[in-house]
Amino acid sequence: MLLRPRTGRGGLSVRVGVVILPERRWRHSGELWRRAEDLGFDSAWMYDHLWWRSLGAGEWFATVPVLTAAACATSRIRIGTLVTSPNFRHPVVTASEAMTVDDISGGRFTLGIGAGSPGAGDSGVVDDTVLTPGERADRFAEFVELTDRLLREPVTSYEGRFYRTSEARVIASCVQRPRVPFALAATGPRGLALVARYGQGWVTLGPPAFPEGVTPASCLAAVRDQTDRLRAACEAVDRDPDEIDRIFVATPAAGDPLASPESFEEMAVDYAKAGITHLVIHWPRAEGVYAGDPAMLERVAGEVLPRVRAL
Questions:
Q1: Upper half-sphere CA count for residue 255 (Cβ side, 13 Å)
Q2: CATH number at residue 221
C-alpha cells in the first residue's frame, strides 16, 4: 500500500523520495535507482511526459518501461509516476500497465495522476484540442473515475465526454488491494474533491513550478493553505484526511533543498509543520534546472534522513 502518514517523537515525521528524470540510458539510470534504494530513500519517481519543458532537446525515455526495469532492479523502495498525464494516455491502457508494474514490483507501485499540464511541452502532441481549465478538470475527473473502475472491476464499460470504453477487460489482479494506490495532483476545489474520494496520496508543487515572484516563504504558505483545503474536502465526505499521504515535490520556487544538509532539514521540518508527510526532491542534474552536487544528496541521505523521519 501507499506509504501511510506517521508521526515521530515530536508529533511530526516526513518520508523522503527522489525524482529520477528519464534522461539517461538504462545502463546509467539503473545505477541511480539502485543507489536511491541503498541510500534509504522511501520512494523514487518518474515524470510521465513525452518530454518536459526545456529538456525536450535531449534524450528522454518512456515512463512505463523504465519503471518496469526499476522494479526489477530494486526490492524495497516504492516507485511511481509523478504524475501520469491524460494529455496522451487512455485509462484502459494506463490501468493495464499500472496493474502489471504493481505485479512486477511486488506491490511497490503508486500511480500518480494529474490533470495534464498545458505548459509541459507535450500537451498537444496526440490531440491538439485546446481545453479550458474547466474542461481539463472534467477530463481529469473522468480519467480518475474510469481508471479506478478498471482496477476494481473484471469488465468495465464507460461513456464519458473524453473517454469511452466497451467491455474493457483489465481483469484486475493488483497485488495491492483493493487496487494500486492513487496519488492525485490537485490544488483546486474540484481536484481536491477527487483526492478526498479516490486518493491514497495527494501531490502538490505549491504554486506553479516556475512562477515569477514566488519566494520560498510564499511557496510554503501556499502549501499550508492547500493542506487546509484538502482537510476540508475530506471532512466534507466524512473521510479522515490523515489516511492520505500528502506529497510535496520541491521545485525551484521552494528553494534549494540540497544547498546544504541544514537547508534540507529546514525544508523538511517546515513542510512537515505545514501538513506534508512526504517530501520529494530531484536527483541532482549536471546542469540547468535541478542542477546540483550528487555528493550533497549522499550526505543528506546519510546525515539527515534518519532525523527527519523522527522529528
A1: 19
A2: 3.20.20.30
